[in-house]
Amino acid sequence: AQKVTQAQTEISVVEKEDVTLDCVYETRDTTYYLFWYKQPPSGELVFLIRRNSFDEQNEISGRYSWNFQKSTSSFNFTITASQVVDSAVYFCALSLYSGGYQKVTFGTGTKLQVIP
Amino acid sequence: DTGVSQDPRHKITKRGQNVTFRCDPISEHNRLYWYRQTLGQGPEFLTYFQNEAQLEKSRLLSDRFSAERPKGSFSTLEIQRTEQGDSAMYLCASSFGGDRQYFGPGTRLLVL
Questions:
Q1: Pick from A96, A114, B68, B106: most CB atoms within 10 A?
Q2: Tens digit of pLDDT for each residue in A57-96?
Q3: Which of B4, B45, B92 has the most A C-beta neighbours within 10 Å, making it the best mutation to test the interface with A?
Q4: Are the beta carbons of B101 and A102 separated by less than 8 Å?
Q5: CB distance from A102 to chain B under 8 Å?
């Protein structure tokens, strides 16, 4: 069975601070995808990134960066110079190919509040 | 390229009533998924369609829940005899083959 753990339930930072959201996953499969989604108060899940299990290269996109370490089964997400618009719930997710489709397991989310 | 749409966006109903939600996937996507998200939790998988065939159902999907995808296009999710525990956000997603899933805006259900 697969599992995604986001130990941080809520984080508050002051605007312009950097913040890292932690994600630890469990799976016995060697082929999988990892995702981060943003869910603002409107409720829609906004896709941020997808990484496959064979690509451990870290990625940077503007103020966002991701650190994938298979050795510790972690896929952490850092926001640099946070802004009020970053306030949202962030979900980490794991996707496995199971029964002919991508079975996605989500973590419980981390609520980020950026204070002006 | 229009995204996944869901209707209604919000639904308030009384316990015991039936409700039906609709999902329109991205037009070329052959796979469609339903998820349920309760407060403070991540989305949980409910069921999956490939074209018009419902290929997998979670044990979360009780007998009061039924989903259809006639002609492999839009899908409906019906909840019969709603209970207060059914209050949640119901999310639909679609994909083309094994590509990533694209999520709709969700339907928020409140059962009084």
A1: B106
A2: 888 899 999 999 999 999 999 999 999 999 999 999 999 8
A3: B45
A4: yes
A5: yes
